[in-house]
Specification:
The protein has eleven helices and six strands. It is α/β, with parallel strands linked by helices and 291 residues long. It binds zinc ion (ZN) (2 copies). The site of one zinc ion has 8 residues, from helix 2.
Length: 291
């Protein structure tokens, strides 16, 4: 994937709705207040690495250089549809390997990919981002996004970047929408338009944590709407969220977009929580439980 050089002036390419402006203002207020206080604390009490507690010298604002290097990217073999890494203890993955879940119940989206495994330093970083309300974490994550997309062979030319929306009340409580911030960075990295108003979350949902795959799908059903199908029809969409676990949320969002005539829908998340690992308890929607 060719990553464009130099800054991308994106304002003329964004598709705004009223939420976008509010989110940017809330984010700026939040960052201003926290930024000043954090700078003061940093001066008096230098913070250590969020994950290993050692000095951050040479690293980012939140992780030391060693923990940054240890962020585990998801690499092939993985399901060419949902992107879940193949379990090579019993799978014999080929280039077009399709996992059992996708063969049995295909998703509405065309494919999903994640930057890294939802564990260790990346899990800690995302948790800090969401649960401790630290949008500044995106600054540490941005180089990883650039590295990741540079390594990909797919082309997203002609795609629109759409964040999986948060329910408006929750966004106001948190003062920012993590998926929007990730999507904005993805759009900037790939030089694609950010289309924040295409999808709307119309109802609150219970926490997805500790729910089975079927329960998650039922819980999220009907949570999204498309107000203007004419703005969705024919568009290829890169749907962005923070963490994907069973794919129920992305699938429900993709279903509504496809019903409105969307073309290809690719999903990208920062992290993938694996159902056969030890990390499913802390999926994307845990934020809904905590806030
Ligand atoms: Zn560290
Ligand atoms: Zn799959």
């Amino acid at each position: 994937m060719n990553i464009p050089n130099g800054p991308i002036i994106q304002s003329d390419k964004q598709i705004f709705d009223s939420r976008t402006g509010v989110m940017i203002i809330l984010e700026k207020i939040s960052r201003l207040g926290r930024g000043t206080f954090a700078s003061f604390l940093d001066l008096v009490f230098p913070r250590n690495c969020l994950y290993c507690s050692n000095s951050r010298k040479g690293g980012g604002d939140f992780l030391c250089a060693l923990c940054q290097q240890e962020i585990a990217y998801i690499e092939p073999p993985y399901c060419h549809c949902c992107g879940v890494p193949a379990d090579i203890s019993y799978d014999f993955p080929t280039e077009n390997f399709e996992c059992a879940g996708c063969r049995k119940n295909p998703f509405f989206f065309d494919c999903a990919r994640s930057l890294g495994h939802y564990d260790a330093a990346l899990k800690k970083l995302i948790g800090h981002f969401k649960f401790c309300k630290q949008p500044g974490v995106m600054k540490d994550l941005a180089p990883f996004l650039a590295d990741y997309f540079r390594s990909q062979e797919e082309s997203w030319e002609g795609f629109y970047v759409v964040p999986v929306p948060l329910y408006f009340r929750r966004m106001k409580e948190r003062t920012f929408d993590q998926s929007f911030l990730i999507a904005r960075e993805v759009a900037r990295t790939l030089g694609l338009p950010l289309a924040n108003g295409l999808l709307r979350r119309v109802r609150d949902t219970d926490s997805q944590a500790k729910k089975t795959k079927a329960e998650r799908a039922k819980n999220i059903k009907g949570a999204f709407e498309v107000d203007r199908p004419d703005r969705v029809a024919g568009k290829n969409i890169l749907l962005v969220d923070d963490v994907m676990t069973t794919g129920a949320t992305a699938n429900e969002a993709a279903k509504m977009l496809k019903r409105s005539g969307a073309g290809q829908i690719h999903v990208f998340t920062l992290a993938r929580a694996l159902p056969f690992g030890n990390v499913i308890e802390s999926a994307s929607d845990k934020a809904d439980q905590i806030i």
